[in-house]
Amino acid sequence: MRKILVISSLSSILLLSACGTGDESEETTATDIDVSALEEENEQLNQQVENLEQQISELEQQNSEKQNDSDLAELEEKNKQLTDQVEDLENQISNKNEEIASLETGLEEAESKVEESELAEIDEKDETAEEETASSGSDSDDVPREWESALNSAYNYAEIMSMSKAGIYDQLVSEYGEAFPEEAAQYAIDNIEFDWNENALKSAENYQDLMDMSHSAIYDQLVSEYGEKFTPEQAQYAVDNLE
Fold first, then answer.
1. Which pLDDT does position 3 carry in this prediction?
2. For 64-86, what is the mean pLDDT?
3. How far apart are CA 133 and CA 9, in angstroms?
4. How far apart are CA 54 and CA 57, in angstroms?
5. Residue 232: which residues within 8 A CB-CB, separation 6 or more?
6. Which are the contacts of 23, defined by CB distance < 8 A and separation ≥ 6?
7. Could you tell me the maximum CA-CA distance found in the chain, to the nearest angstrom?
8. Cα(47)–Cα(52) distance, rounded to whole angstroms?
9. Are 149 and 184 a contacting pair, CB within 8 Å?
10. DSSP assignment, residue 143?
11. How far apart are CA 190 and CA 193, in angstroms?
């Protein structure tokens, strides 16, 4: 900017000098001296401008370096913080891995104990079953053959004729029936296992289908000592489940 002002001033002086009329040689000489002085001054000013521009450039460079140093320091601080966080996380992961390893070891020990306990329980059950089998075989050997026959006959009456437990007993001891001793018949009744409710229902259905009896009459026939001799509970089950 200063260069432009100096050059403009110089141009104005030259124009004024050229436009003068009847100037003497002394004035021309003075003008030449002034121009030279101005040119020298202009050169000095230009040099000063260049020096200032150089100083400005150096200052800008210094500011840039300082800014870079500041940014670098900030980045280093952040990097240190992140490094600390990573180390902390790694320590936590290591602790968790140790806990997991400890739990896995405990789990393996627990599973081993459970397996041993189950095996011991199975062995104990096998021994108990063997003892029961041996005991059952021994008891079976002690049961008279006639008693076993009475039990087999009781099952036949229950399955084929759908009789009650009391009715089967009467049939087993009757002189017109099986004529088993009372001890054999009682053994059969004590050891037979059957669904007596289902037998009562089958008997009730027979009375309903063959004799067209009412539910009340069927109930009486089922519990009668001269009839089927089912228990009241078994007879009621049968009547309640008739269609």
1. 45
2. 74
3. 137
4. 5
5. 223
6. 17
7. 186
8. 9
9. yes
10. S
11. 9
Which pTM was predicted? 0.44
Contact 164, 230 (CB under 8 A): yes
Q: What percent of the chain has pLDDT over 90?
A: 40
Domains in the chain, start-ordered, CATH in brackets? 144-193 (1.10.10.10), 195-242 (1.10.10.10)
What number of other Cβ atoms are within 10 A of residue 52's Cβ?
11
Amino acid making up residue 1: M
C-alpha angle with apex 83: 79 to 84, nearest 5 degrees?
120
Tokens read off for 74: 């900030």
Give ∠ CA 38-42-45 in degrees, rounded to 5: 140
Q: How far apart are CA 193 and CA 51, in angstroms?
A: 125
Q: For residues 199 and 156, is the Cβ–Cβ distance under 8 A?
A: no
- Residue 239: Cβ-neighbour burial (10 angstroms; 0-12, 13-18, 19+): middle
Q: What is the pLDDT of residues 152-171, one digit of tens each?
A: 999 999 999 999 999 999 99
